């Protein structure tokens, strides 16, 4: 099975997986750094608590200069020291407002107690105080930084992706337009030549039955050229009856397939009108029928239903073919997707473009079951 889209999807999946691994690794390293700094701050607080205990003990053998230097070295970690009754004895690196300072400190103490940053200070056997502290501003900023950077990275990737997709779509549109116009132009010359040959053959008395058959083929080529000429620019819309469109398109296909394929059209008696480009919509129905015939290996049945409600008409093309796995319900419309050994995989892409971009409708796989068949649904606005 040739599936260009699957190959592209694998490359995208690998790229996404590598990106996730890199981002995950970055977050792991950053969080590990924050964790290590948090442990380092706790070690500092324990030393600070020991220094505070030493000051309270008033031991003459202590180097008070060193102890005071340790105490004064904390310039960034918010600290509250309270006794067993929650009476605040000392605060450090906390900006206290002038209005209701006691109430503010009580609330701050309760906030600190909810965390795990608590160190017990034994002043003697019967007296104990508690040192509560919060992460320093530096540690808080560092803990937020990986997430902020991750958000910036995601935003950058999203913008780059949208810009790339926009550029890619514009490029695809140019390719579609150029290819379609060139195809229509290339068909024009041999069609004109064939029409001239028909006139010459008629003057030479060639059988009119043969000329009539040739005329049908030339008319068919003219229709194909007209279809390609309309791709790439917004085609003109005309009011048509969808019932007739489906009947004519399926009748054309019915005459050109073997008797092993049964094509049946189910349309309501009520005439259903819609604004559409007739040559392009006929092309859509023919493409869906051809895909269905390929999926059935040239043997089975195709049922085409027309259903309506107050605002829309629904065209269902149901076959008895191989079916489509659910994971491919959307990818079947991507360029390059094909299950055939030969082919560009552009048929359903073209169908989607005609239905959704030119007729403001929708086309999707309504239902499918492996080895039982598939139903494609087209939604169009009623006129």
From TrEMBL:
Transmembrane parts of this sequence: 12-29, 144-164
Histidine kinase domain ranges (all copies): 182-383
Record-linked PROSITE patterns: HIS_KIN (PS50109)
GO molecular function per UniProt: ATP binding; protein histidine kinase activity
Source organism (scientific name): Coprobacter secundus subsp. similis
EC number: 2.7.13.3
Domain of life: Bacteria
Name of the protein described by the UniProt record: histidine kinase
Biological process annotations from GO: phosphorelay signal transduction system
Keywords (A to Z) from UniProt: ATP-binding, Kinase, Membrane, Nucleotide-binding, Phosphoprotein, Transferase, Transmembrane, Transmembrane helix, Two-component regulatory system
The reaction(s) this protein catalyses: ATP + protein L-histidine = ADP + protein N-phospho-L-histidine
Any matching Pfam family: HATPase_c
Keyword Membrane carried by entry: yes
Originating gene: porY
């Amino acid at each position: 099975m040739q599936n260009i889209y699957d190959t592209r999807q694998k490359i995208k999946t690998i790229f996404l997986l590598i990106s996730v691994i890199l981002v995950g690794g970055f977050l792991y390293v950053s969080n590990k750094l924050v964790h290590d700094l948090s442990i380092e701050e706790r070690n500092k607080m324990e030393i600070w608590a020991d220094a505070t205990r030493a000051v309270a003990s008033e031991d003459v053998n202590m180097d008070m200069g060193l102890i005071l230097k340790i105490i004064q070295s904390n310039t960034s970690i918010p600290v509250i020291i309270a006794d067993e009754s929650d009476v605040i004895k000392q605060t450090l690196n906390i900006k206290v407002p002038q209005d209701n300072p006691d109430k503010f400190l009580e609330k701050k103490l309760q906030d600190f107690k909810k965390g795990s940053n608590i160190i017990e200070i034994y002043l003697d056997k019967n007296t104990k105080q508690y040192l509560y502290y919060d992460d320093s501003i530096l540690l808080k900023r560092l803990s937020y930084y990986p997430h902020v950077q991750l958000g910036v990275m995601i935003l950058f990737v999203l913008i780059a992706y949208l810009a790339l997709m926009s550029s890619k779509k514009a490029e695809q549109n140019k390719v579609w337009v150029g290819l379609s116009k060139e195809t229509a132009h290339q068909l024009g010359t041999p069609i004109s030549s064939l029409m001239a040959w028909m006139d010459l053959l008629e003057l030479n008395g060639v059988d009119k039955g043969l000329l009539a058959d040739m005329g049908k083929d030339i008319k068919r080529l003219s229709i194909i050229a007209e279809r390609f000429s309309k791709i790439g620019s917004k085609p003109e819309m005309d009011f048509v009856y969808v019932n007739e469109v489906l009947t004519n398109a399926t009748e054309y296909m019915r005459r050109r397939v073997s008797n092993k394929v049964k094509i049946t059209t189910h349309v309501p008696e009520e005439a259903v009108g819609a604004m559409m480009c007739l040559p392009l919509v006929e092309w859509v129905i023919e493409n869906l029928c051809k895909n269905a015939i390929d999926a059935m290996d040239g043997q089975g049945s195709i049922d085409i239903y027309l259903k309506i409600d107050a605002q829309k008409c629904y065209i269902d093309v149901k076959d008895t073919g191989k079916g489509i796995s659910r994971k491919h319900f959307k990818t079947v419309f991507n360029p390059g997707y094909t299950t055939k050994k030969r082919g560009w995989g552009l048929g359903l892409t073209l169908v989607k473009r005609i239905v959704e971009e030119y007729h403001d409708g929708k086309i999707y796989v309504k239902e499918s079951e492996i080895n039982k068949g598939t139903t494609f649904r087209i939604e169009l606005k009623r006129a």
